[in-house]
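ok so I'm stuck.
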Amino acid sequence: MLHSIPADQHGPLAAPMIHAVEACVHCGFCLAACPTYRELGQEMDTPRGRIVLMKQVLEGGLSWADAQPHIDRCLGCLACEPACPSGVPYRDLISPFRALARPHEKRSLTRQIQQTLAAQTIPYPTRFRWAAWAGDLTKPLRPLMPAALRPMLDLVPDHLPPAQKWPETTPAQGTRRGRVALLAGCAQQVLDPDINTATLAVLSRQGFEVVLPRTQSCCGGLAWHTGDLPRAQDFARRNLNAFPADVDAILTNAAGCGSALHEYHLILRGTPDEARAEVFRSRVQDVSYFLARAGWRDQPPASGRKRRIAYQDACHLANAQGVRNEPRELLRSLPGVELLELADAHLCCGSAGTYNLDQPAIAASLGGQKARAVAATGAEIVASGNIGCLTQLRLHLQQIGSPIRVQHTLQVLRDAFSEA
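replied:
not stuck anymore, here's the structure
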């Protein structure tokens, strides 16, 4: 017989966690949607099973160490949420639980080094660029590296794109339709900075002035999803202070970042900044959602050629933000485009922040499955809305020898406008 969770022992995050636990009726609809259940076939590696584990830990009937391996294996892809008939807000449970669990974690020295390297480099573009450059140089030494560090080298592209800089304000072309602010992202600035360039070009062409606040920081998603609440709160506060109030929307072009911004009310729950976080998150929109709602001011020109484009749903766009139709609408609006869907489109590609580093075997299996699904479409291009997904797709499509190009949705749109 399980006891009730003592809310007063778990701080301000307890209330949403308790609500999420109580909403679960253990029906099992989440099992078919869960990538780790498909991979491992274990009840404790399902959302339903993890909820039981977390409940027992919070009640004091199970040790943190016993639950940790199964909680660690959760991608946080939130595919369970749209599959759940009871509407369990799993996002209100998994990251807060990891924040509570962090002081109790038992990690190997290698794992601690890995986590520290990720936390001290990825959120900081200049550091991350230097780290990626150093990683590229040390790739020949990969066989000599500890096994836990090799996935970090595997994710470093063979040719790092040159750094790009953007003005603090990009003016609207023609009559101004609005003014927006853009989160530049962290890893994206290093791994594929052209995504931001394409985003600015499309928004400007469509009549929107775009502000890139110079004092903005990492969204805090990496820290939040690994349980580092103090660091996540620090990043959140920086962005609350950095972004102006006199804009029509705060836009993101990375699904993981957008999802993190939408959770600022949880990250800052119980602090003096909670109310500001609620207002902030209400203004955040994915750029594809914003453009689809705004509509084209001028239609993409006819290029005279046919293109087969596959679209891959980024989990933190489709599941966390509910943005599925809008990117597809934008791509279908391009002349000559045949939009193709993937088999098992709901399954995560295995990127999920630092999941490639934390769970390399599962991540590689999911990445390979997603790459084969993309290849089976016969597409010329596969588009997605998250830098992690794009990096994962490039890696695994390359591994199977596929020539399919990987692009962000906004890069496809930018190129369509410039091809005529």
